[in-house]
Amino acid sequence: MPFWEEEIKLAVPSNEVLEAMVAAVGKGTRDHSYRDVYKDSADHQLLKHGLALRERTQGGERRVELKGAGTSSQGVVCRPEWQQVLLGELTGCLDLAEGPVRSRVLEILTPQTPLLPLFRCLISRRSLTLPVSDLGLVEISFDHGEVCTDQRQVEIREVEVELLAGSREAAIVLADDLAQRFGLTVAGPSKFLVGLTLLGWKGAQFPIQAIPDFDRLSLHPDGTSFFSW
After folding, report:
1. Cα gap 229→219, rounded to integer Å
2. pTM, full prediction
3. Could you give all domains of the chain from N- to C-terminal order, each with its CATH number?
């Protein structure tokens, strides 16, 4: 069974705004960098089945993550995700140990199918886990980096607000407050769809990710701020 990821992504207009947000949340952020390489078969069968496969290297650890098409409600994108540890570089289906990703991938590809790189994401991330009153627990991540192919690259600046436990209202309240205080807007295409665009593909060709169902966040109904800034 997949894990269901629930998150809101906000676009950050400048490095100065990004640094101001990090300073506002105070101490306690976890700093790390990661490298994602999105991969597929030569004929893009995973993409055609609405799946995005990525190999993530963070520190000395590797893992493989498989994400499916999602839905959006109240700005929270919800999508299935499978993941497992990798022991080495992912060059083909045979490199996948027994686990949830291998099981799902082999519903589409044969064990001998090579997995070829599509594009890369190189991201520096600062994360913080926060309780939101009695609504739930969220992780807020401040990301800065790039999505790149061999010929092209695009700078990425965004904030991810992911629900870890409790009601999705917790993610909405926190994202709402950030948007209002720092002039943020809901992020456009995901890093994955940005990568496809760099490759010259139209995102509409692949049913990968739900598009948020609103153009901007509104204040929480009581008009109060979660943070005491």
Report:
1. 16
2. 0.85
3. 3-205 (2.40.320.10)
